[in-house]
Amino acid sequence: MFNRKIILREEQKGQNECYKILAIISTPSYSHQIPYQPLWLELHARGHEIVLVTTNPIENINSPNFTQIDISVNYNSLRAIDFVKLRFEKVDWIETLEKYLLSLCSSFEVQVFNSTEIQKLYAPDSNIKFDVFLTEFLYMPAMYAFAYRFNASLIGLSSLGLLSINDFVLGGAVLPSHEYLWENEGNTGINLPFYKRLHNFVKTWRLLLHLNFNIFPKEQKLAEQYFGPLPPLIDIMKNVSMIFINEADVLTPGRPILPNIVRFSSFHVSENPDPLPKNLQKFLDDAKEGFIYFSLGSNARSSTIPKEIKRIFCNVFAKLPYKVIWKYEEDLPEKPKNVYIGKWLPQQSILAHPKIKLFIYQGGVQSSEETIRFAVPVLGFPILADQDYQVRRMEALGIGKYLEITTFTEDQLKNSIYEIINNKKYKERILIIRDQIKDTPYDTVKHLAWWTEYVVRTKGAPHLRSTLALEPWYQRFDMDIVVFLAIVTYILKKTVILSSTSARVS
């Protein structure tokens, strides 16, 4: 989709001041890279100089003002984690984060710091300067040190919504039971009973305290190994100018948001996807009753699903009147005759095919955006991270259904497929949602590029930062007042009880 040479528009180049922009996206996941690629291309087209550190370099770029540093070596570490296995072992997201991903994120950062090309940028004797630095606001705070090293404005990026640690540090509202907080997976919602809210409260604040008092100090030491003495990383984070979040208002539950957050959605989706390979095109064109597309995304592998679960899928698929195209990473001897498998499949081109009936997927953000753009209802089997939240949102919006991959039955799968395909309300509803998302008064890519330039022009846009970030957390949430009133209430109650007891004795 992005396989095109960059052509500078001379009229724009002449009108805009040229800024030097550094972007580091170190997460080895295509879904973390692709949302921002149109932004890098647009900023370059406006005449800015780009240095992009990425695990997925954009192809066919031939420009002296667009440098890409390849850190795809990070994929080797991520492939060691079997997210499907963790799902079946009932390891929740926060446990996965603490046991596996936080240390893995540090290894991604080390690869960045140790890159010879990147070391040339931040070497003490380097005279290289940048006006703005963009990086992911996930679980890699050592990356924020680049903003301090280059005295550049910091812009955070997130393809997973806003994390609780972001709200905690930046002065936002930490709402452990709000359905937006996907870190608590399917345990959030409206008017939850006390015990569920208590569980979410303890779980969320335990994570926040762990990140604040254990992870940030470790990240501080890591960053200082390469940069020398630094201000606290949490203070660098508080000075973030803006955060660009990949989420659509229509798909997101309403909640208070910080003034320096800009949302964007779907601008990686192509209006005219590339043609399908000939053999796949013929397979789909010959689907008289239509076809179903099945993919668990780039981070979860269908080939690692337990045998009994594969058997359920194969048994149901074999009995359907539809053809099925399945992203499957190995050979599948028991593959039914109506099923086509491929290790890699051109997802947008498949979703754009007129004969598609249903998308069975894992609930990734980008996949959700793509399926809505092409108006294909979904059946979701979430595996990790925000996918439970995403699939439940699709179900709540009436454009799909949710099934749990560890417990579903043949009948549930078959009935869900027929329900979504035969009930017109799913298709009608997704067409409405698609039109609502597309109904914007501006080009979203240009909008984000403008905000990037605005941050530089306003020297970091400090007026957009929440002043609540400057207060200690216990003051911001009035925890000290709650504790004080609880103590006073307890003392008064004890005093009244003692007085009553003394009066009765007298």
TrEMBL record:
The keyword Lyase does not apply. This is Ecdysteroid UDP-glucosyltransferase. The keyword DNA damage does not apply. SUPFAM superfamilies: UDP-Glycosyltransferase/glycogen phosphorylase. It comes from the Eukaryota. CDD domains: GT1_Gtf-like. InterPro entries: UDP-glycosyltransferase, UDP_glucos_trans. Belongs to the UDP-glycosyltransferase family. It holds the Pfam family UDPGT.
